Amino acid sequence: MAGGLFGRVREAMFPSRKAPVHSTTQAGQVRERKYGGNTKAMAAAYGVAPRTVLRWIDGTRHPTKQQNVDQLQREAVEVQTTERGRERKAKQLAQRGTVSGIGARVGRAVSFEIRGSDAVRARDIHLNLSGDQAAALAVAEDEDEVRVVIGQALADYFNGGASYGGFSADDFDFNSNDFDLN
177 and 91, same structural domain? Predict the structure, then answer.
């Protein structure tokens, strides 16, 4: 499973499109699908020599800088689905209305208070995402967009629904390692 919140969401939304495990396969797919087969462009994006990228692809070397490992893994997840495929899935999910059939579990949501006390205890919160929220996750481009969608789902949960007021997506923060879709 890909690391990071964005990677886990993308893999849950598109289960048949998991990122490859091996860095050699990741590097090859990223070069072809994101950089159009241009080794120099990929090398520039990673701050390495083109020969280094070629070595990652042929397996004689692997990324050693954590920044490059993270970037490669993130981009490998990104290239598994096309924009058209994400938009098609989002359209299907949006048509489901208020019940998408996709749920989320958020553990230890924190960072807001009601009348001076923590409103959320250290417990799991189970959310039923609306069709629009699930659609927004399908087309999310990065972790920040995922956080906004889940934050809004948390606000709707604690407000008693989207039509009631009170909390907003910005009122919530959560540990991205303690989150999953189901």
Answer: yes
